[in-house]
Amino acid sequence: MSRKTKRKHVFKEALDDDMSLPTENQTIVRIISTKGNNLHEVLAPNQSTYLVSMPTKFRKNIWVKRGSYVLVEPITEGDKVKAEIVRILTNEHIKCLKEDNVWPPEFSDNKKDQEDESDLLVNRNRLEIDEELSSSDSDSEDNK
Fold first, then answer.
1. Domain spans of the chain?
2. Percent of the chain whose predicted confidence (pLDDT) is above 90
3. Concatenated DSSP letters for 28-85?
4. Of 17, 38, 98, 121, which has fewest CB within 10 angstroms of its CB?
């Protein structure tokens, strides 16, 4: 599978409209910082902090930033990493969870809910240039 096809499927899964509620062992947490090697420090509703890992299907395809909310599931192996990210929550997911009274009240006063969900999926470090535009621009410059 090509990188572009894989990315398309990962984006589709991440933005899936599956508004299922978290199971008993899943927790909603907020990303505090990135620690490298696909590890993120998160803040749980009980104000404890711990490390979670990004699953391989999301690595190099989806980026999360500080203040984003994710759904995590605890893992047994390892001492420092306590959980793994199951789903990255978008604004639509958050609205649905608030309507179902599942959203933790500790996170309800944040203004992060108003940000655009597309920020989760865009790598701002690299500009995407349309190949057709760049080739037509260079041709017109060559003719001058």
1. 3-142
2. 36
3. EEEEEEEEETTEEEEE-TTS-EEEEE--TTTTTT----TT-EEEEEE-SS-SSEEEEE
4. 17
User: Token match 């690595």: residue?
Assistant: 59
| Structure token digits, residue 59 | 């690595």
DSSP 115: S
The dihedrals phi and psi of 134, each to the nearest 5 degrees, come to: -70, -35
Q: Which residue has tokens 């108003």?
A: 114
pLDDT tens string for the chain (144 positions)? 787 787 777 767 766 656 788 999 999 999 999 998 899 999 999 999 999 999 888 887 788 889 999 999 999 987 889 999 998 898 888 989 999 999 999 888 644 444 444 455 566 666 666 666 555 555 555 555
Three-state DSSP class for residue 121: coil
Q: Which amino acid is at 71?
A: L
Residues in CB range of 58: below 8 A, 6 or more apart: 10, 14, 85, 88
Q: Tell me the two tokens of residue 6.
A: 């894989």
CA distance 6 to 12: 10
